[in-house]
Amino acid sequence: MAEYGEEASCNHTILPGHSHSHGVKPYPVQPQYDPDTPYPLQPPQPPPVSGPAMMDIDLDGLHTQQPIQKEQEDYSTWDIVKATQYGIMDRVKYLIEQEGYDVNQPDDENVSLLHWGAINNRLELCKYLILKGALVDRTGGELNSTPLHWATRQGHLPMVILLMQYGADPSIRDGEGCSGVHLSSQFGHTAILAYLIAKGQDPNMLDQNGMTPLMWSCYRMFVVDPARLLIKMGASVNLQDKVHQNTALHWAIMSGNANVMPLLLQNGTDTYIENSKGEDVLKMAASKKNLYVFKKIQDHRGDTAFKHVGILHKLSMSKVCRTRVMYTLPFVTFFVIGFIPELDYSIAIKLLLFGLCYVLFWFLSKLFFDERYGNIMPISVYLATKVLMYSSWFFYYWPYINSMSIHIPFFIISALLLYNFVKAWRSDPGVITTSFEEKKRTIIELAETGKLKIEVFCTTCIIRKPIRSKHCSYCNRCIAKFDHHCPWIDNCVGAGNHKYFIGYLFFLEIMIIWCLYGTIQFWNGECETNFEEDGIFAWLFQVMKCSPWVFWTSVNALVHVVWVGLLFICQMYQISALGMSTNERMNQTRYKHFRHEKGRIRSPFNNGYIRNIVNFFEIRCCGLCRPMKIDWKTQFDMDIQSTGSYTYKPLSTQENYQFV
């Protein structure tokens, strides 16, 4: 199946009758509903295709299929149906204009010429047929379908656009009661689905059995793009079909499609809705013996082993309470690890206290932790380590550092660290947003200019992606000049906060070095051992004995000073020497504008060390420097000059979208 945004180049011509792929019909019949047999044993799958692949990907955006040229073939003997299928324009014109063939005359299968041209993506030929009077909404074939239905099933977006420009109605139902949005959802043609909805089709349209496109997508497609787009464009997750009273989540569970389940749960699916059998989604998952889905639904509902304990269940169901516990527990953990060994008790009592704390933490994690913990934990751990280090500075290191020349710079660095951390954490990293009407206009413009491809369009946010932007799977939003998602600041790093992130790393490294200096001063004044005289093992035992809290702080500081330092060096190297973001450096072979002559990879944004730094930090230096300011939220294209420098050319929505 072709990836979203990449049109299928149908090298395999579909022929009538017995010539169809060794008996496989090009327009397969969907299984009919039988109320007495509610559910098929297996979810319906796309039909097998023999011979050359019907869905070869056209990476260069060549949407018009070229006629198949056969050497030493005498086209003068071909009938008009075969000539139409192979795109032999001259033969078709001769038969219509010289022989008087009626363009609306059906063949033996009650299929018109426009049907065969549409299913084989013969754009110029179909345009000619329409201008000669071919009916664009003529029905025919086994399923009583229109040419638009045939083109939609095969995933030919250019043909769908052409037919609709000449008046084809995508809301017409075929013999199974399916319209264009249902067919594109069933076969995962997200580009066609987006175009049809942007042109006014209802994302909640019902087929003859009351199934919506979202239900079909969740039942048949094991990729999330079609379902995600439908929800973004207004599809309801809680509608029920007319026959079985299933919601989209019911259909997903029925076919074992666990990929779309998180998407449906995040968008408000009611897990208590029952179908005609009296099954909610939890009961259906149990009947299907799908333990993974069963557990996910339980977690979403907040069902725990303590649900029969009133107050505990009430607290665990509160999202605010869950969040607070998940944020607080790392602070308590770091405190316990340093505090218990500091107590003047026997080792047995200390081990007992550690055991009790472990049981308590396990209990709280089972009761309050949910799928958000992976995102909350890193920033909570970061804040906990900083509290640990500052507590050590004031309660342990202060007596051994008598000079204000040490304390004052430490406070200044701490203030700068706090400022840059908050700005990196809370600032807009460059989120790209548009209105619903702008989303629809973007889809139509990109589709009709042949540029509705994954490189320039985000299927999740339904926006045209500016150059250097990327969709963040953690934040579920597109970020301008995306660098990476940093769990330690619980935010993306992009055009809006990248310089603050660099400042945060720089001042954090200095603060940790200051903390290590305080640790050494404490050990020199408090511990009686000497590293050079006693050796490493005796020294380690002595410093641990002096203060387990300070030793625990030093371990955290050493770990931080290494990874923060390496991250800062790596970031500055990319910014100054390469002119790249982290995302661009990791995926440089995927971006066309990084491909230079002779196959070399080079960033077109690299202007040399000094200029890169001036532009990145927007250094003016009393007017001596003139940084280049670019609005990366609206910068869609670029011109790369032969000198290696670059100029930016924002395009209007009326211009053609492509890399120069």
TrEMBL record:
- ANK repeat placement: 143-175, 176-208, 209-242, 244-276
What EC number(s) is this enzyme filed under?
2.3.1.225
Q: Pinpoint the Palmitoyltransferase DHHC domain residues.
A: 455-588
Protein localization: Membrane
Question: What are the start and end residues of every segment in region (Disordered)?
Answer: 1-49
Biased composition (Low complexity) is annotated at: 26-36
Question: Highest taxon of the source?
Answer: Eukaryota
Composition bias type Pro residues, residue spans: 37-49
Keyword line: Acyltransferase, ANK repeat, Membrane, Repeat, Transferase, Transmembrane, Transmembrane helix
| Residue ranges of the TM segments | 324-341, 347-369, 381-398, 404-422, 501-523, 549-570
Q: Which reaction does it catalyse?
A: L-cysteinyl-[protein] + hexadecanoyl-CoA = S-hexadecanoyl-L-cysteinyl-[protein] + CoA
Could you tell me the membrane topology recorded for this protein? Multi-pass membrane protein
Q: What is its main location?
A: membrane
Matching InterPro entries: Ankyrin_rpt, Ankyrin_rpt-contain_sf, Palmitoyltrfase_DHHC
Q: What is known of its domains?
A: The DHHC domain is required for palmitoyltransferase activity.
Tell me which family the UniProt entry assigns to this protein.
Answer: Belongs to the DHHC palmitoyltransferase family.
- Name of the protein in its database record: Palmitoyltransferase
Organism name = Saccoglossus kowalevskii
The gene that this protein is the product of is LOC100373420
